[in-house]
Design brief:
This protein has helices at residues 17-27, 43-51, 56-81, 96-103, 117-123, 129-144, 153-156, 174-182, 202-214, 230-237, 254-258, 280-287, 298-304, 316-328, 330-344, 349-352, 354-361, and strands at 3-8, 31-36, 86-89, 109-112, 147-150, 165-167, 188-193, 221-224, 243-246, 261-265, 291-295, 309-311. It is an alpha/beta fold. The protein folds into two domains: 3-171 and 348-361, Rossmann fold, CATH 3.40.50; 174-347, 3-Layer(aba) Sandwich (Rossmann fold), CATH 3.40.50.2000. A six-stranded parallel β-sheet has the order 2-1-3-4-5-6, sandwiched between helices. Strands 9-8-7-10-11-12 form a six-stranded parallel β-sheet, with helices on both faces. It is globular and about 65 Å long. GO terms for molecular function: transferase activity.
Length: 363
């Protein structure tokens, strides 16, 4: 039985990816111990530091305090239990992996590198020296790891030839699969949830909803979240009676809520990052039994096959037509909901961690 130490400032509540990996490894028979002091700063907050460098001091102080606790706990655990077989550094672990490499010399370190910091900052409007520095941070983090876990082949292609990478789909946690069994019928139509970043392409969703209304098609649409494009989208849609805005839902409540909708919307942007990812919400919404409409990109087409409806990135008219088809043809809607449920079986924690187990057993 492999002993894995999950290590770092990851926050499973806000970013469930590492929790899915941990659950999957345990289901495969690994003993996974967590040494975790969560960093409460969100991805958006970390990117904000790039735009306002004077906030870096407060972030560094907070991170250093967490590291003191991580180091103390790690040394105590190793003293009692000996070295683990491998160390898993959770999502957003660009800094944590540097500490892990210092503490666990000679131990394989798996870095869950779900995002490239430089690529993300560029996608959110940063440029110049900020992006250059973040790309350097990406490189330092990758160099400190033994194996880099990525979510798509497109992200793996961003590694250098000497790097060791493994593609692990994000998948969905058991709460999403359980939610659809707890839902007593579906009485709502369409849901989107996300951070309103350029990656999401929410302005495309807004235009698509407007075009639907012009045809007299007004399904109930719920938009959950806030972010960079929120004000623009809210202005575009605030006069439509069929659109509901919810600024925040607790992560624990999101699976059950989403499972009450028939259709879930993915991402629709034309940004470079938008063309390289399969978003969490797509895996999660499929697990919850929703029919999926999302952008037609290589990674999404590759992972989802015929189980989703794909529209051209940035094309609001195509999105309008896709929604109209499902709304007006209940039998097609039911077929796509069932296709989602079947496809989601490939993305449980147990299934997505199979490649990690093969790597651990051969190293």
């Amino acid at each position: 039985m492999k002993r894995i130490l999950a290590f770092g400032t990851y926050n499973k509540r806000k970013h469930p990816r590492v929790g899915i990996i941990i659950d999957g490894l345990r289901e495969h028979g690994c003993e996974v111990v967590e040494i975790n002091h969560p960093l409460t700063l969100s991805t958006a907050g970390r990117v904000e530091i790039l735009k306002k460098p004077w906030k870096l001091f407060g972030f560094a102080t907070h991170l250093l305090n967490l590291w003191i606790h991580l180091r103390k706990d790690a040394k105590r655990w190793v003293k009692t239990n000996g070295n683990p077989d491998a160390v898993l550094v959770g999502y957003m672990g660009h800094f944590d992996v540097l500490l892990a490499r210092h503490l666990f010399r000679g131990i394989p370190i798996l870095l869950d590198h779900l995002i490239f910091a430089g690529d993300t900052a560029k996608d959110r409007g940063s440029s110049g020296i900020k992006v250059t520095l973040l790309k350097h941070l990406d490189r330092m983090a990758i160099n400190a790891s033994s194996l880099v876990l990525l979510d798509t082949e497109e992200h793996k292609a961003m590694l250098q030839p000497q790097d060791h990478g493994l593609v692990i789909p994000v998948g969905a946690s058991k709460e999403w699969y359980n939610a659809r069994t707890l839902t007593d019928g579906r009485d709502k139509d369409i849901v989107f949830y996300g951070l309103y970043t350029p990656l999401q392409g929410v302005p495309v969703i807004a235009e698509g909803i407007q075009l639907l209304a012009q045809r007299g098609i007004t399904p109930h649409v719920t938009l959950i979240g806030q972010g960079q494009d929120y004000e623009y989208v809210h202005r575009q849609l605030e006069k439509l009676n069929n659109v509901e805005f919810i600024n925040w839902i607790e992560p624990e409540d999101l699976p059950l809520l989403v499972s009450t909708y028939d259709i879930a919307l993915g991402i629709f942007s034309t940004t470079s990052k938008g063309l390289h990812v399969v978003p969490n919400k797509v895996y999660q919404s499929m697990a919850a039994g929703c029919a999926i409409i999302t952008s037609d990109t290589p990674p999404q087409r590759r992972e989802l096959g015929t189980s989703a409806i794909f529209t051209e990135p940035g094309n609001a008219k195509a999105l309008r037509d896709a929604i109209a088809t499902l709304i007006q043809h209940p039998s097609q809607l039911q077929q796509h909901m069932e296709a989602s449920r079947q496809c989601s079986k490939k993305f449980t924690a147990f299934e997505v961690t199979r490649p990690i187990m093969r790597w651990l057993q051969s190293n």
